[in-house]
């Protein structure tokens, strides 16, 4: 299988050619948004991080910001800082440039520019130039083996495990059979099904990692002295017929198909393996997408029973409904329908092949609905408090 | 009489997921290990919710996808709605 993508000078492959505006700190969000809104063809992220963070928490924020800049779906980057923050814009820009010397990276410091109006003007001018350059790049034939797919199910209902996830599992198997990579994530939503995933691990070490990350996740609930049912399954999941986290998880893991599990990796860690990889992320949809994209996912396929709109600013996010009722009700947001599996008019295999075809088309430039609608959801997992 | 369909994921399961919303006293057809079977539900079952295929005693496992999805918190009769009111998760229970 092939698609049309962008080959970067370092050999990596992109399926989009974004100019991305990144604030290094919460205080630079308004300027970053202002720059992007001035220039068609740019996108931006906003977040609440970047100052008074310590240790591993600051490192994770830095890593996620840098890895969105270095992501192969991004052509060039404007980094915006305030000037006095913990996570300095200079360091973010330098780290992107060091890893990707071929990328245009422009730095804007609000205090140095003389305020938000002048900073917005400086960033806008740089972004305008980058969009002009980016538009001259041509797509070329690239093997699907180079694609990294992030899988996700959110706003699950009882049909997630019957239609949407089994169909996505077929697409996952097809991509892996062709040499590609598939990410299974949302560790919380594997609780109760970890023994099934671990049984597919390539060796004892990887199998043990499955049990270890589940134990760590479950311990967070027990350490807080809370019943996880306060948040998992969510009230919407319960209304949709899911009675326990175990039931949700057993339906959830179908989306990872049936191939061997190669490794279990940390949140936002670089994805270097081929085949099926489990990234340890929270079950919160946007933190999960952000972690998978930071790791290098090119695109996300997101099954939903209750309905969701969200999408990464730089990685196309394709929505698959578990029922035709949802597909019709939220048609502005849902790309594909797995409902015919429930009504008996299509097989899991047929819908899985449809998802695989859509992935190749979207990788080649077809816009997913979340892109057309301008979704740019971004959330970094917190592992420490602000001080 | 209203006809309804359900889906049983694995033959060892003791619950069935309904396709559509089903009124009380409706016979629900489903495929169980290649056999077409029918159970009349004794309560209304919402879209995507489950009913019991067999008697599940208090404390016994509720099985779907061939796996345990929780324990029954009271005796459940065939055709009864199985959900958070009579099924309890065993995982992530910092309250216990």
What does this structure look like?
The complex is a heterodimer of chains A (387) and B (96). With 387 residues, chain A is an alpha/beta fold. Chain A has two domains: 117 residues, Rossmann fold; 228 residues. In chain A, 41% of the residues lie in helices and 17% in strands. In chain A, the strands form three sheets. Chain A has a seven-stranded parallel beta sheet, sandwiched between helices. In chain A, strands 4-3-5-6 form a four-stranded parallel beta sheet, with helices on both faces. In chain A, helix 1 crosses helix 5, helix 2 packs across helix 3 and helix 2 packs across helix 11. Chain B is globular, with a radius of gyration of 13 Å. Chain B has one domain: Archaeosine Trna-guanine Transglycosylase, Chain: A, domain 4, CATH 2.30.130.110. With 96 residues, chain B is mostly beta strands. The interface between A and B is medium-sized, with 35 and 29 residues.
Descriptors:
heterodimer, A: 387 residues, alpha/beta, Rossmann fold, 2 domains, 4-stranded parallel sheet, globular, B: 96 residues, mainly beta, Archaeosine Trna-guanine Transglycosylase, Chain: A, domain 4, 6-stranded mixed sheet
